[in-house]
C-alpha cells in the first residue's frame, strides 16, 4: 500500500509538471520580453537546484518518497541549506512556467504542485525520522524549501 501511494504521488507530480509545460498559454497578464526572461531564469534556477539535490543525495537517491533503507542521511552540500532542494527546484521551475503560461489553469496546476510536494515532503520526513533519529536535529536547523524557513519545531509524529 505504501509503495502504491508513493508511485501515485510521483505520477501526479509529473502530470502536474507536464500540465505546466503543455497547457495552452493564457492572457491573464502580458508575457513580454521581461516576463519571459524572468520566467526562464526561474526555470533554469529550478533545474539547477533540483540537479544539485539529485547529485547531493548520491546513493540515497530514489524516485520514490520512501527513503532507501540503510542509506545515509545527507545533510551537507545543498542539503545543508535546504532539506528538500529537489522539490524546491520543481516549485521554482514551476513558478517560471506559470509566469510564461499566464493562465488560470497554470495557476491551479502550480498551486496543486506546491500542495502535493508539501504533503509528500511531510510524509517523507516522517519516514526519515523513523530511519534516522538525528533527522529532528537536522530539521530543526535547516529550512524545508527555503533556507531558514520551515525548520522543525517539534518532532514529527511517527
Describe this structure in words.
This protein is mainly alpha-helical and 158 residues long. The protein has one domain (29-61, 72-158). The protein is built from 5 helices and no strands. It has helices at 2-22, 33-57, 85-101, 104-131, 135-141. α1 (2-22) packs antiparallel against α4 (104-131) and α2 (33-57) packs antiparallel against α3 (85-101). The protein is globular and about 50 Å long. The model has no long low-confidence stretch (mean pLDDT 94).
Write the layout of secondary structure elements.
Layout: H1 2-22, H2 33-57, H3 85-101, H4 104-131, H5 135-141
Helix pairs in contact: 1-4, 2-3, 3-4
As a whole number of angstroms, the C-alpha radius of gyration is 16 Å
Major sheet: size, sense and barrel closure? none
Helical proportion, percent range: 55-70%
Structural class: mainly alpha
Number of helices: 5
Order of helices and strands: HHHHH
Oligomeric grouping of the chains: single chain
Q: Report mean pLDDT, rounded to a whole number.
A: 94
What is this entry, summarized?
The protein has 158 residues and is mostly helical. It has helices at residues 2-22, 33-57, 85-101, 104-131, 135-141. Helix 1 packs antiparallel against helix 4 (104-131), helix 2 (33-57) packs antiparallel against helix 3 (85-101) and helix 3 packs antiparallel against helix 4.
Amino acid at each position: 500500500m505504501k509503495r502504491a501511494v508513493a508511485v501515485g504521488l510521483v505520477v501526479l507530480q509529473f502530470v502536474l509538471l507536464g500540465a505546466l509545460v503543455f497547457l495552452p498559454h493564457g492572457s491573464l497578464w502580458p508575457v513580454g520580453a521581461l516576463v519571459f526572461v524572468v520566467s526562464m531564469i526561474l526555470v533554469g534556477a529550478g533545474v539547477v537546484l533540483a540537479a544539485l539535490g539529485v547529485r547531493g543525495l548520491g546513493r540515497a537517491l530514489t524516485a520514490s518518497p520512501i527513503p532507501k533503507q540503510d542509506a545515509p542521511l545527507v545533510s551537507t552540500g545543498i542539503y545543508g541549506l535546504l532539506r528538500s532542494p529537489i522539490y524546491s527546484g520543481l516549485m521554482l521551475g514551476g513558478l517560471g512556467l506559470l509566469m510564461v503560461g499566464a493562465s488560470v489553469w497554470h495557476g491551479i496546476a502550480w498551486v496543486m504542485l506546491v500542495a502535493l510536494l508539501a504533503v509528500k515532503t511531510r510524509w517523507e520526513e516522517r519516514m526519515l525520522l523513523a530511519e534516522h533519529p538525528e533527522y529532528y536535529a537536522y530539521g530543526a536547523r535547516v529550512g524545508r524549501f527555503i533556507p531558514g524557513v520551515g525548520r522543525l519545531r517539534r518532532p514529527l509524529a511517527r
